[in-house]
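queue> pop job 88
queue> type: inverse folding (structure -> sequence)
queue> payload:
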């Protein structure tokens, strides 16, 4: 009997500053890229998944083809692995955000690159490879309509090794906004598409049956990009009796019906890119949907509906001044925010922000692999030195996750966020004490 061709799909890990791979026994968050790619692979192939952060790659296990998903932070490691496989004569295909935005660079370490979505082109690529006709670049001639996507094969991952027991799921792709530091509008050509609600519900039901998980993380960048869709989705989730996390923009909180349905549907965590409490800083990154004057009211609204949240902040923006850090901390204490993440802005290649800073000669660390590190400032800010930004971001993390701040925010007085807040904050308190970048947990 002829055996099936063996495909290894890898999510490379990140590298440390000395360029050695970052390895851990456990990690926090389960990824969607590999299970979805496995779902897209026709049944005549045998697929193995490797989250390289958790497992070592076996270069000599008789693989016929290797596929790697690439994001900027793991790109150097993807190249190291690609070179190793190719030395052994095993063809390597790369896809994902980084290979799409830096195709020529990726092709130095891979035999083929898929640009953009692979849903339409992956089966054809595999057929071309079997026919000995693998092309260098594949790009679908249209965006997927998101109908009939396969169920991601999560069960092929070592699910026990992930601490946050929530399966990733995608309901939409793209984002209606155009923030200048973000690749999403670039990658998806400024579009926002939604999946049929019935198919999402079916995927959840099947996942419950196959994996037993009842917690999910919607990885969509802005699940409320179309309010009518989000309301319809949340309504359909209510009978499933699940719990889920998701991301939406702060202006979504204006829609009380949406909040009510999300709460009823089981949302246990919303992550919001607030980015800054300075309106001019927001304008400098085209974050037009955020209005600082509404923040307090909109965050209070989440609390009214019992929806737990975390906020993301960026520092080093052109209108940021050295007092930005203390003002942000003060704001967070005033609203008693349960969770927040502080980052230096990272002008990644392919974004409008990177193009602008390059034109102005302000990029000082061009290496892609540095761009996971939330504490290193890679460019010259306008009103501060890079060191001031790094020091301020680190100080925000340490102060926000200090025992004093947690007490003030979560226990004075005890409130709806106390239990979840203390549990989640404890993790970041531990990290802050040891100077660990939160992203290293993920
Ligand atoms: C969930 C998520 C995370 C999770 C990842 C959890 C995990 N275990 O993987 C966490 C929170 C850890 C995370 C962290 C970070 N992330 Co992140 N993340 C995402 C998010 C929201 C969803 C990723 C996802 O699952 N997408 C769904 C999959 C199915 O889509 P996809 O990967 O695009 O796959 C399609 C195609 O790209 C292609 N494809 C992908 N891989 C492959 C492989 C092959 C072989 C082929 C043929 C095709 C192919 O086919 C797929 C189907 O069409 C994306 C945004 C987004 N919309 O994708 C950002 C995103 C990937 N993250 C990003 C960034 C910058 C980061 C951080 C560096 C941020 C930071 N400084 O903290 C860190 C880096 C951490 C790290 N270790 O590398 C950027 C990457 C930009 C870039 N140029 O690479 C994105 C695009 C968001 C953004 N614009 O800011 N992230
Ligand atoms: S709202 Fe979020 S996903 Fe959309 S462009 Fe801005 S940062 Fe990117």
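queue> result:
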């Amino acid at each position: 009997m002829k055996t099936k061709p063996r495909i290894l799909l890898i999510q490379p890990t990140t590298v440390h500053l000395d360029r050695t791979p970052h390895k851990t026994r456990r990690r926090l968050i389960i990824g969607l890229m590999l299970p979805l790619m496995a779902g897209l692979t026709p049944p005549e192939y045998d697929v193995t998944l490797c989250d390289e952060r958790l497992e070592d790659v076996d270069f000599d296990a008789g693989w016929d083809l290797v596929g790697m998903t690439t994001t900027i932070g793991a790109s150097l490691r993807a190249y190291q692995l690609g070179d190793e496989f190719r030395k052994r004569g095993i063809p390597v295909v790369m896809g994902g955000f980084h290979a799409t935005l830096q195709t020529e660079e990726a092709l130095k370490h891979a035999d083929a690159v898929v640009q953009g979505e692979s849903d339409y082109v992956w089966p054809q690529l595999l057929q071309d490879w079997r026919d000995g006709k693998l092309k260098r670049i594949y790009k679908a001639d249209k965006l997927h309509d998101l109908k009939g996507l396969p169920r991601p094969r999560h069960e092929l991952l070592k699910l026990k090794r992930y601490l946050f027991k929530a399966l990733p799921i995608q309901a939409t792709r793209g984002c209606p906004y155009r923030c200048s530091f973000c690749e999403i509008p670039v990658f998806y050509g400024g579009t926002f598409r939604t999946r049929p609600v019935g198919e999402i519900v079916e995927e959840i039901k099947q996942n419950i049956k196959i994996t037993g998980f009842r917690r999910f993380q919607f990885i969509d960048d802005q699940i409320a990009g179309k309010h009518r869709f989000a309301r319809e989705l949340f309504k359909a989730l209510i009978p499933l009796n699940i719990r889920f996390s998701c991301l939406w923009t702060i202006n979504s909180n204006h829609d009380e019906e949406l909040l009510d349905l999300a709460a009823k549907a089981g949302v246990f965590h919303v992550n919001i890119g607030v980015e800054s409490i300075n309106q001019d800083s927001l304008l400098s990154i085209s974050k037009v949907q955020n209005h600082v004057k509404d923040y307090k009211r909109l965050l209070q609204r989440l609390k009214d509906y019992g929806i737990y949240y975390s906020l993301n902040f960026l520092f080093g923006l052109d209108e940021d001044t050295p007092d930005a850090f203390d003002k942000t901390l003060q704001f967070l204490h005033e609203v008693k925010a349960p969770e927040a993440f502080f980052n230096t802005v990272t002008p990644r290649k392919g974004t409008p922000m990177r193009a602008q800073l390059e034109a102005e000669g302000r990029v000082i660390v061009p290496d892609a692999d540095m761009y996971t590190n939330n504490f290193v400032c890679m460019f010259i800010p306008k009103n501060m030195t890079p060191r001031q930004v790094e020091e301020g971001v680190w100080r925000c993390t340490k102060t926000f996750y200090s025992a004093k701040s947690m007490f003030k925010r979560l226990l004075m007085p005890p409130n709806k966020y106390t239990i979840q807040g203390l549990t989640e904050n404890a993790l970041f308190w531990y990290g802050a004490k040891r100077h660990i970048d939160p992203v290293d947990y993920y």
